Amino acid sequence: MTDAPEVKSRAHQLVEAARQLFVAGVMSHSGHANLSVRLDTDRFLLTPGFVRDLQPHQLATVSLDGQVLEGELRSVSVEIIAMHSVVYRARPHVGAIIHTHSPAATAFAVAHRPLPCRTEPMLRFGQPEDVPVVPWGPRGSDVSVRGIADVLERRPTTAAVLLANHGLLVFGPDAAAAGHLLVAIEESAEAEIAAAAIGGAVDFPEGALESVRASIARVSS
Questions:
Q1: DSSP per-residue letters across 136-159
Q2: What pTM, to 2 d.p., does this model score?
Q3: 107 and 192 Cβ atoms separated by less than 8 Å
Q4: By the 8 A CB rule, do 154 and 177 touch?
Q5: What's the rounded Cα separation, in Å, for the pair 155 and 115?
Q6: Which of 77, 123, 174, 194 is spaced 20 to 30 Å from 183 by Cα?
Q7: pLDDT at residue 77 in the model
């Protein structure tokens, strides 16, 4: 990884976001995940195939067309470059992407059920709509990548997708924002599953998002 100050800063942000996922307890038993952060219009930093105890110098620099420009990737990460690239191409404002097998969210992915937005953290952290499901395809395959592209086109405001029979893909303006949203989604999935046992979750009243935004604006001004 290059020593350019901006690259080093983004690398440290990515490593910290990965650490926070473990602190928050949203990781699967295996700890599997992959994270990336955009460097410019053509390149991004990508985790090397593991995220536990990750260090900045272990990140690889890759191009949107799939070339490893600097560093090394395990084969398990090479095949997911396209999964990250398709999001960066579709969403120029996205600065970071996180993919995990977070257990509760993955339950919705396995069930092929969109995750409704029924908790306030989802409103606050950037997903004021249900999380849609991308049809299954082998990880990194043309089928999977086309499926992600199709859902992003049809759902231009979603900041996350569930990968059917696989896991969760979340994206945001930076690594910290993506991490906060991922935690909010996992907590929401847990709450949905728990609420089912006591009668089921209930939708927000009309105007909830606007009320939350007004509340945030009051304390930010």
A1: P--TTSHHHHHHHHHHHHH-TT-S
A2: 0.94
A3: no
A4: no
A5: 14
A6: 77
A7: 81
Half-sphere exposure (CA, 13 Å, Cβ side) for 10? 25
How many CB atoms are located within 10 Å of the residue 27 CB? 20
Q: Spell out the long-range contacts of 27-32 with Cβ–Cβ below 8 A and sequence spacing 24 or more.
A: 27/100, 27/101, 27/102, 28/100, 28/101, 28/102, 28/103, 28/106, 30/101, 32/100, 32/101
C-alpha 19/C-alpha 159 separation (Å) is 21
- Residues linked to residue 36 through DSSP beta bridges, in sequence order: 46, 97
Which residue, chain included where needed, has tokens 């990140």? 59
Phi-psi region of 54 (alpha: psi -120 to 50; beta: other; left: phi over 0): beta
pLDDT of residue 76: 78
pLDDT at 219: 77
Say which residue the tokens 């990781």 belong to.
27
The three-state secondary structure class of 96 is strand
User: Taking Cα atoms as reference points, which of 12, 28, 49, 66 lies closest to residue 176?
Assistant: 12
If phi > 0 it is left, if psi is from -120 to 50 it is alpha, else beta; for residue 98 that is beta
Match 């001004």 to its residue by tokens: 221
**Could you give the CA distance from residue 102 to residue 18 in angstroms, rounded to a whole number?**
13
Query: Which segments of the chain have a pLDDT < 50?
Result: none
Length of the chain: 221
